[in-house]
Fold this sequence. Notes:
four-stranded antiparallel sheet
Amino acid sequence: MYAVIETGGKQYRVEVGSEIEVERLAGDPGSEVVLDRVLLVADEAEASVGRPLVEDARVTASVVRQARGDKIIVFKYRPKARRRVKKGHRQELTVLRVADIVHLGRSAAAEATRVEEAAKTERQRLEEAAAAQAVRDAALAERLAKKAAQAKAEANAAQAKAEAKAAQAMAEAKPARGTAKPKASEAKPVRGKARAQSGESAPPTDEPKKRGTRAKKDE
């Protein structure tokens, strides 16, 4: 809900909790001020326009502080009269914080409080749901971590078993491979040496001996 009020010859659009600077009003900081010149009151459903003021409507505000506006320079002169006037001015202001807007028995502050409580309740419900989901996620992550560790341990055990089996097979195959190959000292003798030791001559052959290249040249 919002309202349009008039004070100090100016109009302001206000809501609950908003701060405005108006022309100087009497009051100490913390005191309450009631603004009854309400031109319009509206919410999401309907709007009430005053002619010129809205009946049974008022805006309650508290004085935040008494302040002064920015300095402005006022300069006046008259041509051909050598008259020059320069003055500074700072407007006296009052800072107000809107506390409530009341119209036809309805209070904007009460409605805002209800909405805030409903939002708080919804936020609490969402936070509780998020906390419960976090607990479930943590439990699931713990179970998955245990399963992964168990699977890794089983894989390491299987790998170690396979390596031990392969090492044992290699150890058993090495002696057989060493005895199968004969030594170089036990190799068979050359055929020519065997014939020389037995006293036999090489068998004659019918093929003529090849002449050397030097004999051919002499011929």
